[in-house]
Amino acid sequence: MNASDASSFGALDGFPTLGFYSLDEQLTIRSWNDAMVLLTGIARDDAVGRSYRILRYFVSPSAESEVDLADCMKENEPGTKSFYLMIREGDLCPVMLHSDAVAGRRRIMVLDIRDVNVCTSVKTAVADAPSSYSGIYGKAPAMHAVFRQISLAAESMANVLITGESGTGKELAARAIHDRSPRRTTPFVAVSCASLAESVLESELFGHVHGAFTGAIRDKKGKFELAHGGTIFLDEIGEISPATQVKLLRVIQERMIERVGGTDSIPVDMRIIAATNRDLPAYVTQRNFREDLFYRLAVFPIHMPPLRTRMNDIPLLCDAFIKKHAARSGKNIQGCTPRAMRVLMAHTWPGNVRELENTIEYAFVVAAGASIDALDLPPSISAAEHTPEQKPREAKRSLVSKDDIVRILAAHGGNRSAAAREIGISRVALWQKMKKLGLS
Predict the structure, then answer these.
(1) d(CA 295, CA 287)
(2) pTM for the whole thing?
(3) Is there a contact between 115 and 94 (Cβ–Cβ < 8 Å)?
(4) Are 113 and 85 in contact (CB under 8 A)?
């Protein structure tokens, strides 16, 4: 859905549109604003591209008669309908559905939640939401959703697949699940599947018996045995070979392992949490990853958002890292100068939160005063500070893709001025960028 699609629904103008999302002709979710993250506990990346069936709709607040949106799309006449959406905790809130042909091209459905009481409750939830959770920091709605998913995963013994770019905190999330689970007093064993050769990884995971190969001078337990009764974290799971995939599938199905060179079956009881920065569904399509193993691992998926999608969390993260490294180093550094913060907010952070922490650690080595200045930052980052008042805005503008503009416009109900303010550019600059990208 592009910006003109959203703005074509006059009913979306004015206060209080709270939750807002849209569906295409195939009833696939195409936009999903921050309020929907808070209302449903479903992150934007986990909603967009999914079927409308991830949510449930009812005729009345009694939840006696369910509505199927497919029936609404089949109707010939466009229009507006009212019913109730089930949000997290099983609550129902009123929702308006607007169905129409956009510029005569195709049918779309736009749904928005306007109830003032719901609006107030979400504002309260935002104000009261924690800024950290088991050592993971964030106030962005996407991080609130992650905190909730971690909490739900901790209550279950289901296998978890954590996805996200490198440096987003996937292992922190895995440890948080373990530390909040009934197995918190048992071992948490982490394995980096990408750092070991296949033959070494097999021995590392399953163990080996004396004489299994050159250098195997004694029996050795593998990580699965060491994690017995606890949790095993398989990082970069997308890197394991087809042969290891088969053996891992057997472990999941039978809860038994055999050491390399051995014949005895050894029972193991552990909770599996896997993580990857790869697109595993694409790997499955390309036959590089077993489909049955993927579904065994991804019983409960959690996505860690990249830092560039939650830039307002940077001051919070910096504060946490400064306190951490001040305690370690003994240096009395208490914060960042405004100029340093402008540089940090302008950077694209391809290495995500890990890169930001490394940046703060570098600054602790260089800084001589009580605050971190722009010149104390690594050269690759401080080089961005050429024109203090202009450079951050230019850098931020370069971060905004076509998909970002569509998402931000949808979140603001098609209001270009509000979208431009969030992006950090003028309304005219936004219009010019939309025109260049083909967004009428």
Answers:
(1) 14
(2) 0.62
(3) yes
(4) yes
Taking the C-alpha atoms of residue 281 and residue 290, their distance in angstroms, rounded to an integer, is: 10
What lies within 8 Å, CB to CB, of 136 at 6+ separation is 143, 146, 147, 150, 169, 172, 173, 176
Q: What are all long-range contacts of 219-224, with beta carbons under 8 Å and residues at least 24 apart?
A: 219/259, 220/259, 222/257, 222/259, 223/189, 223/191, 224/251, 224/257, 224/268, 224/270
The single residue listed with the structure tokens 């890990």 is 354
Determine the angle formed by the axes of helices 416-423 and 427-436, rounding to 10 degrees. 90
Cα 264 versus chain centre, distance: 41
Mean pLDDT by runs of 10 across the 440 residues of the chain is: 37 46 83 78 84 82 73 64 72 73 55 60 59 88 87 91 95 96 94 84 82 71 91 94 91 88 85 94 92 93 91 92 93 91 91 96 92 90 54 44 77 74 72 78
Residue 197 buriedness (CB in 10 A; 0-12 / 13-18 / 19+): exposed
Domains of the chain: 3-122 (3.30.450.20), 132-303 (3.40.50.300), 307-393 (1.10.8.60)
d(CA 295, CA 1): 30
Q: Which residue has the tokens 């929907």?
A: 36
Instruction: Specify whether the backbone of 201 is left (phi greater than 0), alpha (psi in -120 to 50) or beta.
Output: alpha
3-state secondary structure the chain: CCHHHHHCCHHHCCCCCCCEEEECCCCEEEEECHHHHHHHCCCHHHHCCCEHHHCCEECCCCCCCEECHHHHHHCCCCEEEEEEEECHHHCEEEEEEEEEEECCCEEEEEEECCCHHHHHHHHHHHHHCCCEECCEECCCHHHHHHHHHHHHHHCCCCCEEEECCCCCCHHHHHHHHHHCCCCCCCCEEEEECCCCCHHHHHHHHHEECCCCCCCCCCCEECHHHHCCCCEEEEECHHHCCHHHHHHHHHHHHHCEECCECCCCCEECCCEEEEEECCCHHHHHHCCCCCHHHHHHHCCEEEECCCHHHCHHHHHHHHHHHHHHHHHHHCCCCCEECHHHHHHHHHCCCCCHHHHHHHHHHHHHHHCCCCEECHHHCCHHHHCCCCCCCCHHHHHHHHHCCHHHHHHHHHHCCCCHHHHHHHHCCCHHHHHHHHHHCCCC
pLDDT recorded at residue 185: 94
Tokens of 195: 């750092």
Distance between CA atoms of 207 and 361, rounded to whole angstroms? 37
